[in-house]
Specification:
The chain is of the alpha/beta class. About 35% of the residues lie in helices and about 10% in strands. The strands form 2 sheets. It has a 5-stranded parallel beta sheet with strand order 3-2-1-7-6. Helix 4 links the parallel strand 1 (about 70-75) and strand 2. Helix 9 packs parallel to helix 10. The chain is globular, with a radius of gyration of 19 Å. The mean pLDDT is about 95. This is Polysaccharide deacetylase family protein.
Length: about 260
């Protein structure tokens, strides 16, 4: 029955009565398509109920787990130093903003990002591979390695360059992660752009957007953050709020 339901919901599974790798992959695909479900490949009560009723909020890779009308300010890669990182995450907390950070594993290993510290200040930290390759060019084992340690382990991941295909998406799901990209790219790396240019683009984000910036470029500082949030506020748009508590490593929906 499970396999028949998976097929009916668009996640093809061979109806052979065996819960093998193909069926588990289909289960993970279904779970990854419903925001409220944990991607663990286990058909528990919540997954079964959602499958039978064909219910749940459909997941979109651009907006990710943000179901609110608030804007998510996200930063990729690696800051110039640990001091720059800690200054920014403290300032964001003080400004009431929850940042969403996607550092590479190499950056974590280099000691320029403190994952636990950022989470303790109410920010979200997710996977961005180990060394930032285009995952679509790698073998299955190569992708799996890039999604492992020292890369951040959690419930979401952003593939470098936003590049993914079905095989890459399945590799994320196998690690219990959904792919989360963005809806507004500031292109802060081009040129590179000045702080004023990046701030201007980010301030124009629509409600519910995920904005892409980078920790090593111009807008990863408290002044730029304040300018972005005040510009959005002037248009009646808020940013993801900092709840003042430690964020989990594997949230399903963001508490914005």
């Amino acid at each position: 029955m499970l396999q028949q339901l998976l097929t009916a919901r668009g996640f093809a599974a061979t109806a052979d009565g065996i819960f093998g790798p193909g069926t588990e992959r289909a289960v993970r695909r279904f779970q990854g398509d419903r925001v409220e479900l944990v991607v663990d490949g286990v058909v528990g009560q919540r997954s079964w109920s959602a499958m039978v009723a064909n219910s749940g909020t459909r997941y979109t890779t651009g907006r990710g787990p943000n179901l609110s009308g608030r804007v998510v300010l996200s930063y990729d890669d690696c800051p110039t130093s640990l001091a720059a990182f800690t200054t920014m995450v403290r300032a964001a907390r003080d400004q009431g903003v929850a940042l969403v950070l996607f550092p590479t594993g190499q950056c974590v290993s280099a000691g320029r990002v403190d994952v636990g510290y950022a989470r303790s200040l109410g920010h979200y930290v997710f996977n961005h591979s180990v060394s930032h390759p285009d995952l679509t060019t790698l073998s299955a084992s190569g992708v799996a390695t890039q999604l492992g340690t020292p890369g951040v382990q959690g419930s979401y991941g952003r593939p470098p360059y936003g590049a993914y295909n079905t095989a890459v998406k399945d590799a994320y799901l196998a690690k219990g992660m959904r792919v989360w990209t963005w809806t507004l790219d500031t292109n802060d790396w081009q040129g590179p752009k000045s702080q004023a240019q990046v701030v201007s683009i980010a301030r124009g984000a629509p409600a519910g957007a995920t904005v892409l910036m980078h920790m090593q470029h111009a807008a990863f500082n408290p002044t730029a953050l304040q300018q972005i949030t005040s510009g959005l506020a002037s248009r009646g748009i808020g940013v993801c709020r900092n709840q003042g508590v430690t964020t989990p490593a594997r949230p399903t929906v963001l508490a914005c």
